[in-house]
Amino acid sequence: MGTVLAVAGLGLGRAWPEFDPATGNILRKWSEDLLNGVLSVASENDIDALVILGDLFDRTATPPGTVAEVHTLLSALPVPVVVTPGLADWFGPASPYTYTDWEGVEVASGSALKACNGIADWFAAAITRPGGSIASLGAVAPGSVLAVPSYIGPAVDGCFLVTSGERFTCDAQRVVVPPLTKPLGDAVAVLIGTNDARSIVLGPSPIRLHDLDVSQCESTDDLIKLLDATAGSGSAVHLRLYGTVRTGVLLPGFADWSPRPGLTVDLNPLTFAQPDLPNGTAETADVKFLRAMATHNTSPIEQHQAIALGLLALSEDA
Amino acid sequence: MRIEQVRASAFGPLRQEELSFAPGMTVVHGPNEAGKSAWFAATYAALAGRRRAKGRGTLAQRDFADRHKPWVGSRWTVGGTFSLANGVVLALEHNLRTGETSIVESVTRRPLTVTRLEQQLGLGLQTDGGFDGARLLGLNRDALRAIAFVAQADVLRVVEDSKELQHLLERASSTVTVDVTADGALDALRQMKSQRVGVEHVGSRPLRVARQRVEAARTAVDQARDRQGEWISLLDQGQRAAADLAAARIALKTSQQSVIWSELRAEGARLRSAENLSKQLGDLDQIEAFDDSQLAEATSALTLYDNRGVTATDNSGESAEQLRAMLADLPDVPAGDLETRPSVQEAHRAALAAEAAVRTHAENAPASPNGRTVQTDPDRLRTLASILEENALESDESLNIELKSLQEDFAEQVRRHEAELAAYADTKRTIEANRSTYEEQLATYRSALADFESSRDRREGAPPQPESVTSHRSNPKDAPRRPLSLLLLALGSLLAIAGIGLGATMGWSVGGLVVAVGVAAAIGGLVLGSKASRPGSHAEPQPVLASTRPTAPIPPEIPNLELPQAPVAPVPSARVSELEVRLQMHHEQRSAALERQVSAIKEIEQLGITPEPAAIREVARILDDDAAASERRAQHQERASALDRRWRDTIEELLRRLREAGQEPPWNLEADDTSVLAGGAATAYEGYVAACRTRAEQAGQAARRVDLESRLRDRLDADTRLAEDAAGIAQIEARVVALSASVAHVAPQPSDHAAAAEILRGWLIRAAEARRRLEDRRELQGRLDQILDGRDLEEWRDDLANREAGVGPDPGIGATEADVTRHREEVSRLGTTVGAIGGQARQISDSFEGLAARIEEEREAERELAQVEALQRCLDLASTELQKAKEDSQRSVAPALEALMRPHLPAVTNGRYVDVEIDPARLGMTVRDAEGRRSNAQLLSHGTTEQLYLLLRLALTEFLAQGHESAPFVLDDITVQSDATRTLGVLNLLHKVSRNRQVIVFTQEDEVIQWANASLKTPQDRIVAIHPK
Known about the structure:
- The structure holds two protein chains of two kinds.
- Chain A is α/β, with parallel strands linked by helices.
- Chain A has helices spanning 21-44, 64-75, 220-231, 285-294, 300-316, and strands at 4-7, 49-53, 81-84, 106-107, 114-115, 122-124, 145-147, 160-164, 169-170, 174-177, 186-192, 197-204, 208-213, 237-242, 244-245, 263-266, 271-272.
- In chain A, helix 4 packs antiparallel against helix 5 (300-316).
- The longest helix of chain A is centred in the N-terminal third of the chain and has 24 residues, at 21-44.
- The N and C termini of chain A lie far apart (78 Å).
- In chain B, 64% of the residues lie in helices and 8% in strands.
- In chain B, a hairpin with a 4-residue loop joins strand 12 (925-929) and strand 13.
- The longest helix of chain B is centred in the first third of the chain and has 78 residues, at 206-283.
- The two termini of chain B are 31 Å apart.
- At the A-B interface, helix 1, helix 4 and helix 5 of A face helix 6, helix 7, helix 8 and helix 24 of B.
């Protein structure tokens, strides 16, 4: 079989709606750098073929110009290149593989396994409709290598399965190639030899990830100072906040503070403290407000932030 | 909490001085300028400290600094020792200039930081960045000053305007720390929403901006998607066009190859043709030669010989002599008309038409009249017939029936009216009896009322209560008003009764007026009496104490004296009168019709006509017919005369035209009878026609002369030409004979010109054949030369074979040059299309800004909008819940304060008020006396108001301190405005309060000092005297 370099999820020219446009631009530039990195690895490791397992592009966002440039780069490789369209770039009308001439690159165009022209014993299949999958691997000769994107079904006895997935795994029956452009992780390619497969790290994500415990922030000012100090300026930063938010602390979006471009804040891991009610039998409006809010049927974050806003109002008029 | 000691190191006029307080009640007294107010402020500052935050602070804070900074030196310090309920004793020292505080636990002599003390007590103890001892009491320093530290000015201010304390109440109901009001917080939330959310459709606040950004971002995404879709579509088209171009190029190449093969095949055919021509030329080598001049002469002579014609031997038809005889027999051309003139024919047709009209009119003469002898107007006869046909009007029975029914109804109404009149008289008598009875009862009531009033005047001879004195003093005119009101009341009642009587007897216009005057007088009396009896009393006499006061008489109940309305007499229906009139008119019309019929019958009988309408109408019709017949006959006669005149005119016109044509009539036509004249004219016309016919025949015969003369000339010419032709033919025949001997070399010369001609014709045929063969050879040579075009036949054959071998296989599609041109154009067109699509795609590529970034911007805008909307939901939720909490707390705070104030209320108001109510909505205070009368606390006398608000402060401190340390109560000259009784009440109240809470009173009043000396005997209390320095 020789040595095959397998990559997945390059996502050239794709949109990153979970991030702001500044971060999206950084990630797109990174994915272009990663393609060059893949070509470098291909030349440095004397590979026999390059297999791209899905999501090389994003049908909805990748500009056709990028597609043409990528084709130029891949077709110039001195080894066979096989592309299996995946979920994001499924093969079909108006796909990057139909409106551009892919001469010199072998593109799988059917959901049924088909022998690769350039790589002996390799069979490839593509996803051919939106949200589709490889329904069945079918019957192939023992000893074959099956390259299918996003396949999670059982392997075929006697064959080796190469597919794409969330993280790199490898065993006697299959190897899973992780997405190359992973915003919060390392870019990993997989080098598949005759008897083994190993991952190659092409580099870390350009986004700095910080996990911040906000439990110690006693006030909104404390939280904002912590966010500003951690985020710094310039590069893309992703802050993942965790811990229990104290009563009265306003979170980003509710406080009069907005993250700078390139800074994204993940509030999902947070938990929220319930307000401490004063001792005694006080019947003042603030106590009644806190009691009512403590049992209000709304999302925890909005319940907590409504309390914080109420307490802020009750303190600012002092 | 207890204030053990206050140390004024540097505070206002105080320097290095101390003041200790008892755990219960401490009275600190001294004369003016002894420093009581300074010690009052120092005590407050020792507990509450001062703000540490930057800035100038509030107006009250700046005023405090201005008033209590040390008079000398830069230090501004004050301290104190405070015992907490849990046994902890804290010694506080405040640097009021910096806001810093040092804390020492007095028992252990261990210094504490504020944070440590907060952790130890589980409380927040800071306000505005500085230590705030009021937090130990569940308040802040502002609330402490407002509630627990009461200066004389505060009391006076509350008396003038209670809003400050009401605001404090609101704060107390709003927050545990009494630092804001719920309304203020709600305003803050509203302001936050206004600034950080705004409204959806107006302004530039975040919500609207976020929505606009989302819309703009979506539009940008749509545009980028469209642009990218357009780009991809172009690339697709380019792919297809490129494939088409490749196919077209193949088709072009194939068709070009096919055309080359077609040319090779054609050239091969030409080669074979050349070979064939070359072979034919070889066969045409031996051809006989002829002299062209001889050929021409022989041909000419033979042509003349063949066309020489035949000599005429005889001429058919009349000879010249016969023709001359026929000319001599012809007549001359006649004079006169050969045909009837059109004018004569036209005049003849007009005469015939006029005659026909006369005869037709005569056949249609009208009939004669009948000859009726009655001489009268037929229209009058018809009028009389109509009169006889009139029907006498019959009476309408239904009108009679209706009239009778209406008359019976009216009679029934009259009977009912008489019965109602009798009942009305009975009712009137009963009301008169009730009125007499009521007047007797009223007289009795007045007598009893006079007795009651004299008894009450005797009872009210005693001195009135203070409030009563005040109220009577303010209304000195009330005494004389009361008898006047009674007089007006009685007079009004009598007038009303009299008015009712008058109304029943004389009519309600007068009676009603008297009743109105009476009622007005009675109301005036009641109003006057009401004014005279206020305040605290009623117009009607009422005993003050039920056990000793006489009972007021009860006025008699007024019976119903109103007369029912008198019955109204019935009125007959207007329909009765209408029916009577209609019946009378009907009768009169019927009589007039009968009179007209009698008169008409008489008139008809005088004319001798049967008095039947049909007979009368028949006579009228006959009279009309006779008149019409006479008129028609007159018209016929007149028309006949006109037609006869026209007939005569046409005949005279015909005769005139005949004369013009030369035809005279046969006799004198002067007859009067038109028929006779017409007969003459007809005869003349027929003679004219016959003469024309005769002249025409003669003229026909005379016309042959020209033809016969022409035929004679032709006959003479033909005879001359016959002689000349015979000589020419002989000459031609001789030449043929001569030529046959000379050119055809025939010997001996033939004697017969026909044989010579045949010999010559044979010679010419041979010459023509030789010429044709010669020309054929020339043509073949020309064609061969043309095909070869200078080439050698053998070389050409070799060259063609070589080219066929090198062109490749024949596609066999039979393409033509047109096909090649078509394919070439298709290749050119597709090439242009591919180029154009590539250009468009490059144009899009150059200007494409990227869809991915637009999608991210759209998502970012949507996140921002969602965040603003979440903030809006949270602000709305907080506002809603805070509003409900505010209303709920105000409802609960009010009863709690009432319960705390209620036990002390009689003591501070000297028993005047027994209960208090606090309005939950506006937190206003209302007190109630023993008789249940309510008064607004703000509208009472100054002393009472001041005591009530003092009590409210006490209640507030108790209420707010629930769950915390009990707050000391510190007062500065608060009894200055109280009278002696209320001062004692307040002091006793404070003394009672001091059992549970420390009370410190600063005073200069001797009355207070005396009370203190008499009352503060136990160690729990203390009297401290201070002196001016």
